[in-house]
Amino acid sequence: MAPRLKGRRALVTGAAGGLGRAMAARLAEDGASLMLADRDRAGLAQLCESLGAVPILADSTDPAAIQAETSKALQAHGPVDILVNNAGLSGNSLPLEQITAEDAATMLAVHVQGAIHYAQAVLPALDHQSCGRIINISSHFAMVGYGAMSHYVAAKSAMLGLTKAWALELAARKICVNAVAPALLDTPMTRASLGHAEIDRRAATVPLGRLAGVDDIAHAVAWLASDEAAMMTGQTISPNGGWAVVGI
């Protein structure tokens, strides 16, 4: 049986981070060839070498660089079928009084404007392809709220708005647009930040008994990218173990 994404090319933004790496590896395992975007030159180079991927070195806050570097990659290597808008920043649990104008502007620029600019850069290549996919990485905090880092919640909520609007706008072009909304992930970075005891405490509140890992999110993304999800558009999946029952 051929891999379900054989013959397709995916572009993953924010690929050099832990979640981006997991999604890129999962898509590659399912047969997709890759274009990977990040501002981390060294991390991006290492990842692209390991996965045989095409690098796109660009900062998500720089629309000119996104357009130029993405266009260069598309011209040299051909169109993409799948865009995963993953590039993002942590909200650092900032209370409202501590969020600066720069904090808010940067948060929106990376998550929302970055997603728009990457979508614009690849859209001509996605046109008229029956397997076109855009997958936006949001957060389950955008669905249920969170008592801090409201600038982050706002940006991730905007990603859900983009998903719904693009799903309707691009349906005539046979492009499906969906979102994946992870909860807090159990990663080495979050354990280093919060400590093992706090991660274990939070995991105990999840009905399935654990926090999701990056592979759980990667599997959801790969499924949405496949023909198995051909009738999914405008939807949000939240692999959170029942932590928040938000539907689909």
From TrEMBL:
GO terms for molecular function: oxidoreductase activity, acting on the CH-OH group of donors, NAD or NADP as acceptor. Pfam families: adh_short_C2 (PF13561). Belongs to the short-chain dehydrogenases/reductases (SDR) family. This is SDR family oxidoreductase. InterPro entries: NAD(P)-bd_dom_sf, Sc_DH/Rdtase_CS, SDR_fam. One of its GO terms (biological process) is fatty acid elongation. SUPFAM superfamilies: NAD(P)-binding Rossmann-fold domains (SSF51735). PROSITE patterns: ADH_SHORT.
